[in-house]
Amino acid sequence: MPNTFDIRFARSAGFAVILVLGFGALMLPANGAPAAGSTAVVPIASAAAKKQLTFFEAEAAKLRAEFAHVRNSQTPEPIVALEQQWWRLTERIYTSPEYDDPAIRVLLHAELAVSRSWRMALSAYAQGVRTKDKKVIASALAEVEFAEMLAARVRQYVR
Predict the structure, then answer these.
(1) 101 — alpha (psi -120 to 50), left (phi > 0) or beta?
(2) C-beta atoms surrounding 94 within 10 Å
(3) Per-residue model confidence as pLDDT tens digits over 126-156
(4) What are 25-61's pLDDT values in tens digits?
(5) Which long-range contacts (CB under 8 A, 24 or more apart) does 85-89 make?
(6) In the chain, where the domains are located
(7) What secondary structure, in 3-state letters, does the chain show?
(8) Exposed, middle or buried, 123 (CB in 10 Å: 0-12/13-18/19+)?
(9) End-to-end CA distance of the chain, in Å?
């Protein structure tokens, strides 16, 4: 079963060095190699991965839409409730037996990273609303942007 690997590219003395994280390096002639410092993802070709990604994206989209509704709340309670929904999604991902397949384990970790970032953002946002601290709220919104960047990366793991 194909797997997904994070691959880093570097250049050294006329060779392109391809680092497959956790597996070592491969030296190739530099002509036509990817730019130094770039990153690539080799996607998983798996029906189970597609199913899990589809489910995750649907649930995450609902939660993101909910954030759009509670974002301007004057009280932290709706934000805390949304954080709890992200915790439920995290638990569902973590306990799903389909992720027991080592071929899609990296998808599990990627989805958990997105969920963790959203939970961190919502926790900070609720704290900022509670204390009326605009710096904390701005920091939470930066974490939301990071979570969305991670979510875009998750899509690259499945084909």
Answers:
(1) beta
(2) 12
(3) 999 999 999 999 999 999 999 999 999 888 8
(4) 444 444 444 455 555 566 777 888 899 999 999 999 9
(5) 86/115, 86/118, 86/119, 86/122, 87/119, 89/56, 89/59, 89/60, 89/63, 89/115
(6) 6-41, 47-155
(7) CCCCCEEEEEEECCEEEEEECCCEEEEEECCCCCCCCCEEECCECCHHHHHHHHHHHHHHHHHHHHHHHHCCCCCCHHHHHHHHHHHHHHHHHHHCHHHHCHHHHHHHHHHHHHHHHHHHHHHHHHHHHHHCCHHHHHHHHHHHHHHHHHHHHHHCCEC
(8) middle
(9) 14
